[in-house]
Write a structure and sequence with these properties.
With 124 residues, this protein is an all-alpha fold. The chain contains five helices and no strands.
Length: 124
């Protein structure tokens, strides 16, 4: 099943994927100063390239699109929950809203993960 992505969205995905692959190449094979500063530069570069490959696969496959949405929304949810839990300088209501945002993002990430195995388009 082909994902429901417009032509303009395909161009945006393609540019972001090419940018991610370029960043991965620069991190892996970049200047010597960068490679000396980051001892795990190969692993980080391969991660960027793998994420770019997943974005390219999301252009053509619904399950790859669902996996991409699950990863991104899961990371955003984890960051929001961490910010709400560890933000001492935030007001209590702000911390609660961050945790609520993280919980909602986590629910969406789990729904996208279910869509990976069922083959449905999570954004439809």
């Amino acid at each position: 099943m082909d994902p429901k992505i417009t032509g303009f969205d395909r161009i945006k995905y393609l540019l972001v994927a090419l940018g991610g692959a370029a960043v991965g190449g620069v991190v892996m094979f970049g200047p010597a100063e960068l490679r000396e500063e980051i001892p795990w530069h190969r692993e980080l570069g391969m991660g960027f390239i793998a994420f770019a490959a997943l974005m390219l696969a999301a252009l053509f496959f619904v399950r790859a699109k669902a996996l991409l949405l699950a990863i991104v929304s899961g990371l955003v949810a984890a960051g929001a929950i961490f910010t709400g839990a560890a933000g001492e300088d935030l007001a209590t209501w702000q911390r609660g809203l961050f945790i609520l945002l993280g919980a909602g993002g986590g629910i969406f990430a789990m729904a996208c993960l279910v869509s990976v195995f069922s083959g449905e388009d999570p954004s439809a």
